[in-house]
Amino acid sequence: MGELHGVTQLKPRVILGGAILQVKKEKEKEFLEKYADERIHTSEWGIFNNTFAVISDDGILERCAMYYEDKIINFKKPGIYIQIQGQSKSGPGGNDYIDFMSNLSIYLEDALFCVYYFDNIDEYEIKEGVLNYQYKGKFHYFEDYLLSDYASSPKIIADYYAEEIYEFQLRYEELIRMEDDPKERYDSEDYEELLDKLNNYKDFLPVDKAEECVSWLKEQVASYQ
């Protein structure tokens, strides 16, 4: 498969496998004048490497991510969204992408996402229409960077683990649909490790969401006994 460029969004919500940014309502017309033309006859089109514009009438979008299960996210706001695809070999990244995002940021709501590749992590933060790009250094795992840089933001870490559990559930359900046994893919330790991580941050999640995550993980652990 080779080295892939992973993408994880941390603000305003945590999304694994890609990022979804929203164009400001008051900037939609200007955005379309710059990034679309009369040849565009679809609600989705490419505007740069691994980056797509999507017009959504209801705020419901399908995450654009390779090697991840299909996932629908409801942003509850109609408008124009920017999809940044994760898990590709070719990017996003490099000076050209930084320049592109810098120009694009004036149209976007505040957001923060990261691109990680060859153990390197690039951070793109958009605030008040301005891009702040930072190279964060080398980390063997994205989680190491998260725990290091966001130790003072436990809710982001909690949301990250909750999303990891949800992605685990999607993979689990897909195996069941394919009539494969998840126990041939995962050990009880895989669930126990994630449960231990979540237990350190579950108080920063809504109670019902925390209970749902903990219950599912405990159910899987019990199935091995």
Summarize the structure.
With 225 residues, this protein is an alpha+beta fold. It is built from 6 helices and 11 strands. The chain folds into 2 domains: 142 residues, no CATH class; 73 residues.
Architecture overview:
This protein is of the alpha+beta class. It contains six helices and eleven strands. The strands form three sheets. It has a five-stranded antiparallel sheet, sandwiched between helices. Strands 3-8-5-4 form a four-stranded antiparallel sheet, with no helix packed on it.
What is the element layout, followed by pairings?
Elements: E1 6-11, E2 15-16, E3 18-22, H1 28-35, E4 44-48, E5 51-56, E6 60-62, E7 72-74, E8 79-85, H2 95-104, E9 111-117, E10 120-127, E11 130-138, H3 142-149, H4 154-177, H5 188-199, H6 207-222
Antiparallel strand pairs: 1-2, 1-9, 3-8, 4-5, 5-8, 6-7, 9-10, 10-11
Write out key terms for the chains shown.
225 residues; 5-stranded antiparallel beta sheet; 6 helices; 2 domains; single chain; alpha+beta; 35% helix; 4-stranded antiparallel beta sheet
